[in-house]
Amino acid sequence: MGLILGLNGFAQISFVEGYYINNFDVRTDCLIKNVDWLNNPTEFQYKVSENSDEKTLTINSVKEFGIFNISKYVRHKVDIDRSSAVVNEIDHNKKPVFNKEQLFLKLLIEGKANLYLYENRGLRRYFFSQDLMEVKQLIFKNYLLDNGQIAQNNEFRRQLWNTLKCESISMNQLGKLNYKQSDLTKFFISYHECSNSEFTNYQKKQKKDLFNLTLRPGIRSSSLELDGPIREPFDFDEGLTSFRFGLEAEFILGFNNNKWAILLEPTYQHFESEATTIANRTTGEESIANVNHESIQVNSGLRYYIFLNKDLKLFANVLGVIDINLDSSIEVTRKRDGDNTFTSEIQNGVGAALGIGCKYKEKYNLELRHVANRNLLNTEGSWGTKFSSIALILGYSLF
Q1: H helices within the chain, ranges in order?
Q2: How many domains does the chain have?
Q3: Are 217 and 194 found together in one domain?
Q4: For the whole prediction, is pTM greater than 0.85?
Q5: Residue 107 contacts by C-beta under 8 Å, 6 or more apart in sequence?
Q6: Last residue in a domain, options 158, 179, 206
Q7: Is residue 388 part of a domain?
Q8: Which of 107, 228, 363, 377 is the most exposed, fewest CB within 10 Å of its CB?
């Protein structure tokens, strides 16, 4: 994780065309740093021109700011209920507990009626207004009944029914409305269409590529050492370069300009090798070790992207590794007579891996990955291994 966070300073988040309005209602067109905020911001960075210095403005000096065709934030002093939805923190109070706060609210729908979103560390609250009315929170709250069951205060449905009336909107329709962005956005769109009024849908963004399925063949070079009660350890140095084949499912997290992703990559790999060592230095007796390692390796973890330009980006991975072995074993015999001195199945195991790479035109990628040292055996006694690998992986995204 330290590797990924360390690269953060080199990430290029672009400045794009936008504007802000200050406390004196003066509008300034500028370039705003598009961070694609997961949480509603309290400040933002901007430039007057491409070659000017980066500056910061805060919620105290800005009434409104926006990025053209992407997002718009408006400052409002509102009553907000921050009651927790965490099960062990829910109380018995059905009514919301309001506090007056000054917030940047994100506009989702703007028109005759406005729909806003406030999000901060898992807390989601929706707000609305109509014409000249003040901005109010749409009320939804989980609370506990006396028998310990969780109930819901869905007052937001009554608020919308009383305020946004239109002939095509029925109480039955509102009764099915959930307190989530997709449902509320659809409702506000329906209201504007019903009332034949113009509106802006800020959720009509360029479609984000949130899932990728990628073929991942590659070459793996492994390092394996087998220690035991004999004089010298077995050092396998032949046959440890092998092919691997994986299929990667990448789930892009929809914030911070799609820089974070969750990975799941099952991979097939196989190698066989043999090593000889001196078992008894006095007699010069030699022993031979044979390893046959075939496994399905399941890699899962996080990826962080660094955008260089529209076609090329770098990435870093931090992965957990589960190695599921397929009839794999290590066997040691005496070279003189072929007698078996040690046999063990290679065990399933867990480990960790780090990778760095690049991706071109969302289609091709190349990664260098290191899988950290682990013991392939789970035997009691003096036998053990040190096994690690480095892989060069090519990728081709199917979609």
Answers
A1: 2-7, 155-163, 171-175, 181-194
A2: 2
A3: no
A4: no
A5: 71, 72, 73, 74, 114, 115, 116, 200, 202
A6: 206
A7: yes
A8: 363
